[in-house]
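Good day; I would like, with your permission, to put a structural problem before you. A protein sequence and the structure tokens that stand for its backbone fold form the material at issue. I would ask you to consider whether the tokens describe a fold that such a sequence might reasonably adopt. I set the record out below, with my sincere thanks for your time.
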Amino acid sequence: MKKILKTYLLSLLTIAMAFSACKKFGDTNIDPTRSSNLDPSVQLSLIQLRFSGDLNVNERTTFMMTMPLVQHIAGPYSNRWGGIYFRDPNIMGVLWEDSYGTDLVNVVDAVKRTTNVPDKTNLNAICRIMKVYNFARMTDLYGDLPYSEAGLGTKAKFDTQEEIYTSFFQELKAARAQLDGAKDIVKGDLFYGGDINAWKKFASSLHLRLAMRLVKRDPAKAQAEAQQAYNEGVFTSNGDVCKLDHEDVQNPYEDGKGNIRGNAVSASFFNGGGVPGRFTTPFLDQLRVTNDPRMKYMVKYYVDIPGGNPLSRIDLTEPLVEKVGYVGVIPGRYIWDGFLSNVIVDIPGKGAYTAVNNDQKAQPANFLLRFNAPFLHLTYSEVELLLAEATVRFGASFGGTAASHYEKGLTAAFQQLSFFPGGPTVPANEINTFIQGNQLIPGREIETINKQLWITLFLNGPEAYANWRRSGFPNLIPAVGDSETGESLTIPRRFEYPFTEEEQNKENFQKVLPALGGVDSWTKRVWWDKE
């Protein structure tokens, strides 16, 4: 992996610089004076690496917004945007600005460069799948957006999310059918190393995820698309997961340095010397009430040293758990709220230590936040849990009972912790004991399944936020802190568009406002998030 990343780094930097001029004027344009001979396989590498390696996007979209919104983390001042609903379109707009300016421009261009090219049919299919994947993150957060005309050198029209989703399903079916192991070998693929069968499974599994988005808006369509995805062949083991194994470097903001090799979500926890995010009380309560053994693996106490490297932290878990149990931060509160008195503990090999308030607020284990932690794009655990829900909703046509899919999803969720360097291999007896104690309850299956998806999707904030909105579970209570927006304390349902789109693509921007009730507000809902 390191060799691949280093080999492509210089080319990726060149690509990023070539397209940097496209960030202005609607964010959806391709500069017509750009290079005409870019290698689309290098563009593919850039798109894949930036998805989880761009600190600017991942810190704001994941750490500052979606992880606090879905109540995975709380505590730091930098969680206030999603944690206490501090409304700032500039923060919400970073994903739009950076993605249209670099990622989406490149993926649209890569698809165009490989269309109807006989020796690039597999590369074209993979780029088409990546186009769906990248645009899905965008539309699920913003709603209607430029899609069909994105990257065409115009002030692009906004497509409705319904139109975009229709295209997603068509593209995934066509791209999967186009993949052929007997044709071109794909270079530059950092997800699967050009494995065509793996990409077929990813396309179908992504199809399943997107199909289940529609369960509130169009159940019949959701069922039909989920069934087709399953029939075509989704993930069947943890060996199929889509992940990117990052390098052990802490990404800076300066893209000019080319450092997008590390895990940017991890870097977000330690960037700028701020306080790392703490687990929320609802998250810890979910682990506690189900006797989830992941508590002892995922949840730790460390001496609070803002910034730095997670591997340099001093572990206080064993002595602190013995004295205070597991303490989180209430959503909407800062780490200094509910201030805790000092506790003296004995650190093995180091002696007595006075644990202050910040030390006593539980946080993610080091292995989860290493800079070389993998980013899990789509997992076997998620697929099986979605199949369990699909079986409950639509009937037994997905290869097993809801209970069997649920148990496979839980097993995979525990096992995927071992993907992380230094992560645990959870003993089978612990997994089995947990499953036996947390069976599906008739009438509450969907709630139980989606509470487990909430845990499985930890560190994938945008996806966890989307799954919570479409399923309604877990039942998150709006933050109890004081709103700094003057709005009612309700959990926002979408991102607002950036100011630049309103200014530079005004005619098209104004056409989307009626569907939002005339106001671009984050309390409105995207199309599939039917009330």
Summary: The two ends are 44 Å apart (CA to CA). The CA atoms of residues 327 and 361 lie 5 Å apart.
